[in-house]
Write a structure and sequence with these properties.
By secondary structure, the chain is an alpha+beta fold. The protein has a single domain, classed as Peptide deformylase (Peptide Deformylase). The chain has 6 helices and 8 strands, in the order ααββαβββββαβαα. The strands form 2 sheets. It has a 5-stranded antiparallel β-sheet with strand order 1-2-3-6-7, sandwiched between helices. Belongs to the polypeptide deformylase family.
């Protein structure tokens, strides 16, 4: 259960963040805000401030660069995240991972649930765990329910890599990092990834690093 956060303090925190210039600072693993259940958004930020905060999250995601960013990753314990993925990958990677372009989306109070039993395991990284990646098995299809930035309800099925992004960012709002779900024998530095594990799937990494991997959909 989320511990209550004073509305005025939260608004002041966001105002202070936005008073700076450039991308917002991203907090790293070890900061308690990443391990707390975030507060549901219920108007703590007025519409103008919410719009500015969403814009700053978007700019920070672009600058990192990343394909998603949750409010706790900039130290704000609100159930709010942004996602966008232009998916600039080779066709073989796109096909293996189900990675298709996703437009910019704002997820307010998101929740997801698996659809079916299919799972897929691929290397995954996180802006709050810089320099490392690990294989995470996740449901291949999920149903996302949330609100958009205008308060309109969203009920949508995501599949493949977009489903992975939705799960990763929503997990942040529940105090969960991807490492909590990862196959730790697969943990690899970005340097090792570039040198050894650029294949579309983790099959070779599983064989050489000694962890189980099954291509499952």
């Amino acid at each position: 259960m989320a511990s209550p956060v004073d509305r005025t303090s939260l608004r002041d925190q966001v105002e202070e963040l936005l008073a700076g210039t450039g991308p917002l600072p991203i907090v790293s693993a070890g900061d308690p805000v990443l391990r707390r259940v975030a507060e549901p958004f219920d108007g703590q930020l007025d519409p103008a401030l919410l719009t500015r905060f969403i814009s700053a999250l978007r700019d920070t995601m672009y600058a990192a660069p990343g394909v998603g960013l949750a409010a706790p990753q900039v130290g704000v314990p609100l159930r709010l995240a942004v996602i966008e993925d232009p998916a600039p990958v080779p066709d073989e990677v796109r096909e293996a991972r189900g990675r298709i372009p996703q437009p910019f989306r704002v997820l307010v109070n998101p929740e997801y649930e698996p659809e079916g039993t299919g799972r897929a395991a691929f290397f995954e990284g996180c802006l709050s765990v810089p320099g490392w990646q690990a294989v995470v098995a996740r449901p291949h299809h999920v149903r996302l329910r949330c609100l958009d930035e205008l308060g309109r309800p969203v009920d949508e099925l995501f599949t493949g890599w977009p489903a992975r992004i939705v799960q990763h960012e929503t997990d942040h709002l529940n105090g969960t990092l991807y490492l909590d779900r990862a196959e730790l024998r697969s943990l690899s530095s970005n340097e090792a990834m570039a040198e050894r594990w650029t294949q579309p799937t983790p099959r070779r990494a599983a064989a050489e690093l000694g962890f189980a991997w099954d291509e499952e959909r």
